[in-house]
Amino acid sequence: MKPWLRYSLCILLGLAGGTAYAVHQVRGADLGRQVVNGPWSTNTDNGTADASALSRARVALFGLLALPAKEAMYFTARTDSAGAPLTGNCTYTVSGGALEARWWSITLYKGEGWLVKNAANRWSVGGNAPVRDDRGNWSFTVSPAIVDGLWLPTGNAPQFDLTLRTYHPEGALLDDPARAKLPAIKKESCA
């Protein structure tokens, strides 16, 4: 084999391997100052000058509007409260109480930040939608089938995640997100 062909082949293999590694790093585990609270996790570097290049690449890849924490905090759940992965053939109850934020929403995504196609054209539940009881507690259902009450369809996605967005957070939500009171995700049944 001629030397120039051997060098060209090595350069191409190096570029392909480097690109694959970079993609794996960006799409891999969460980056930056990661905080976990039950099934929810957040990166407190999002939207700050302290964010690493990998954190910025991840924000760009997933299209997250990365505002600083004092403006918005984003929490992602890929499992239920018991630690089992969220799957589209199961029914879940998402419940909580008052969140220390001006407004919040929970959106259902399939991998890599894509909304799940569904016949109901529903992708999110806003903080003003759930009916609250006397103590301010609320709940809604995440399910592949239509259910009574407030419902967010899974579209039978093999796996999905839920993103909780809190706008103008305060108190423990902003100061100590690992101890803030966040919604529970309880698996009810699977088809």
Q: Which tags fit this structure?
A:
191 residues, seven-stranded antiparallel beta sheet, four-stranded mixed beta sheet, 3 helices, Jelly Rolls, single chain, 2 domains, alpha+beta
Structure, explained:
The protein has 191 residues and is α+β, with helices and mostly antiparallel strands. It is built from three helices and eleven strands, in the order H-E-E-H-E-E-E-E-E-E-E-E-H-E. It folds into two domains: 29 residues; 160 residues, Sandwich (Jelly Rolls). Strands 1, 2, 3, 5, 6, 7 and 10 form a seven-stranded antiparallel β-sheet that branches.
CATH superfamily of the largest domain: Domain of unknown function DUF1214, C-terminal domain
Query: Helical percent range?
Result: 10-25%
Question: What is the multimeric organization of the chains shown?
Answer: single chain
CATH topology of the largest domain: Jelly Rolls
The domain tally reads: 2
**How many H/I helices?**
3
Q: Which series of helices and strands comes N to C? A: HEEHEEEEEEEEHE
Structural class: alpha+beta
Determine the strand fraction and express it as a percent band: 25-35%
Unreliable spans: none
Ends distance: 58 Å
What gyration radius follows from the Cα positions, in whole Å? 20 Å
Please identify the top-level CATH class of the largest domain. Answer: Mainly Beta
User: How would you characterize the largest beta sheet?
Assistant: 7 strands, antiparallel
DSSP strand tally? 11
What's the average pLDDT? Answer: 84
Q: Given the C-alpha coordinates, what overall shape results?
A: globular
CATH architecture grouping of the largest domain: Sandwich
